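Pinned message: reference record for FMNH2-dependent monooxygenase
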Amino acid sequence: MTITLTEALHASPWEGQPTPATAEAWIARAEEVASILALDAVERDRAGAVPHPEVRLLKDSRLTVLLGPESHGGGGQSWTTALRVIRSVSAGDASIGQLLGYHLLWAWAARLVGTDAQIAAVEELYTRENLFFGGAVNPRDNDLAIEDRGDTLVYNGTKSFTTGARVSDLLVLEGALPTGEHVFAIVPTAQAGIGFPGDWDNLGQRLSESGGATISGVEVDWSAAAGFVDKEFRPLVYNTLNVPLVQQIFTAIYLGIAEGALATAAGYTRSTTRAWPYTTDPKGTAVEEAYILEAYGDLRSRLWAAQALADAADAELSALLHAPRESVSAAARGRLAVRIAASKQVAISAALDTANRVFEVTGARATSNAVGLDIFWRNIRTHSLHDPVAYKRREVGEYELLGRLPEPSWYT
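Predicted structure (tokens):
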């Protein structure tokens, strides 16, 4: 599409269209969203406004409900499709790809840890009303403190990293009781006890709304404590798939950034980059330059390889996420975590290299702020620091040398 975000919000290009019915149609819809976002991604990134219009675009496109039950108007799609959609949107604007990825993660949270009744209620609510999720779950901060008042739980505390929370309709809270037991709950974001200081001011992913949140006296019925029955949690290995899932969402974002950087650079090289005349083998155009052709060939080949590994890991992850929850074993979960660790580190390497080297094949003029190629490097450099990639390499190394599977943690 060649319409702007403002035009899309004034008259939705999907008005009157049916919800996509196939994986291919959902991916095509995501590519339409990406093309709208890409037109002014740099300008919006620099303006740094709260991305309410971008979230509305995601809702209008219905990408927000692609995992929701078809019976409630959702897409009924698998995570294989969802991860490809996140990758596609991230190619147009990685901040908005991150918002979508986290939304889909938290939309699946009830299925990860909830009871059957909670899953049914949450999925009907968010799908029918097309509600947007954020999360206040950063494990590097202290847990929110939870007070048990008999029939209710009360959450208090702060979180420094809450992607999407400020633009959300529903917020996932995680905290700990005095016993140390962790409790997840989904609450309406718009309430007096939830506030946002608006302190997200980072190098990249500037529109991901990943700043802090304050939680003060937020009361939740015990019946909404995810996975608890009579105040007792019944754990499953399936509950621990949240971290492999979020790590593979990261991989999708990184591959999207790399794809966006490569496509943007290629367009600039074709239209604007000039051949170098001071050589014994001058060419008429930049696209005939041997070093430029070699670089694009190398970057594309490495990106294809990273995408192929991610596709395989996506399929393995999706198979477990859509399996009967009681059937997921610790060994299967561990093997999946290793594959995802490999996928993530390869994606980071490919994306960092691509976002850096595109300047070599576009030329000095491409460093102009008007071109905006810096957005890709800033985005991948920022988000790839989420957790040290060295530990992902170590996990794969321990598996290769020692046959050791990663133990579930907040980051594995």
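Pinned by admin. Summary line: The mean pLDDT is 97.
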